Amino acid sequence: MLTLDKLTIRFGGLVAVNELDFHIPEGCIFGLIGPNGAGKTTCFNMISGTFKPTSGSVALKGQRIDGFPMFKINGLGISRTYQNINLFGEMTALENVMVGQHSRMTAGVWNSMLRLPGQRAEEKRIRQKAEETLAFVGLTHRLNDQADSLSYGEQRLLEIARAIASDPCLLLLDEPAAGMNPSEKMELMHLVKRIRDTMGITILVVEHDMKFVMNLTEQICVLNYGKRIALGTPEEVQQNPEVVEAYLGGGEDE
């Protein structure tokens, strides 16, 4: 599904990610972990198009996408959430999820301005899809509420709903469990597995909660100072001495 080949980015004299290689099989829930400043979110930003790599490549289903703008990468099938919740606060939950389908809309400007039948049919379809997506994540009861009136955990779920509404083949989750209590984290874990199992979406997750990552993911890549120091199953990663030294014993994640 996704292949990174010697992916590197420099900010002046700082090498934030250094020749990173890994491959995510289709249908996998893949974890990217590492201590503070390891380069995890920077890696996400290169995959999603926020940053352009200095060298190396990112390929989605065999097609190079490094350097593409964010909207094009989203249109090809990559969607993401953010460390800091990034919703349209004054819009309803339903409207936020409808916006998430923008890359799949086909009605042109004139159709929209004149409210032609094709545009009305598309809007009905988008609304129905948004309602179904909100039901999937358990937010039907907040459908018409403003996003900024939702609880923190509900806003996290809404951001995931908006991300999956665009029918991605790859979903990037950037610290989705941050700020959640143990019960919410357990529900989130079940939701992420359902997204993969029922929708067939491959998932790449960055998360600092080690228990959450180890119980959710099937393969893990560990970064330290921008370089890969381990790659394998959760069991293999936990037993790796470099991981124990650099991550498990290194304090909180970014």
Tally of helical runs: 10
Strand order of the largest sheet: 6-7-8-3-9-10
How many domain units?
Answer: 2
CATH topology of the largest domain: Rossmann fold
The helix-and-strand class reads alpha/beta
Question: Do you know the CATH architecture of the largest domain?
Answer: 3-Layer(aba) Sandwich
Question: Helicity level, as a percent range?
Answer: 25-40%
Main sheet attributes: strand count, strand direction, barrel closure: 6 strands, mixed
Point out poorly predicted stretches: 250-254
Strand content: 15-25%
CATH class of the largest domain: Alpha Beta
Brief rundown of the structure:
The protein is an alpha/beta fold. It has helices at 40-48, 70-76, 93-99, 109-114, 117-137, 152-164, 182-199, 210-216, 234-238, 241-248; strands at 2-11, 14-24, 29-33, 55-60, 63-64, 78-80, 170-174, 202-206, 219-224, 227-232.
Layout of strands and helices, then pairs:
Layout: E1 2-11, E2 14-24, E3 29-33, H1 40-48, E4 55-60, E5 63-64, H2 70-76, E6 78-80, H3 93-99, H4 109-114, H5 117-137, H6 152-164, E7 170-174, H7 182-199, E8 202-206, H8 210-216, E9 219-224, E10 227-232, H9 234-238, H10 241-248
Parallel strand pairs: 3-8, 3-9, 6-7, 7-8
Antiparallel strand pairs: 1-2, 1-4, 4-5, 9-10
Helix pairs in contact: 3-5, 3-6, 5-6
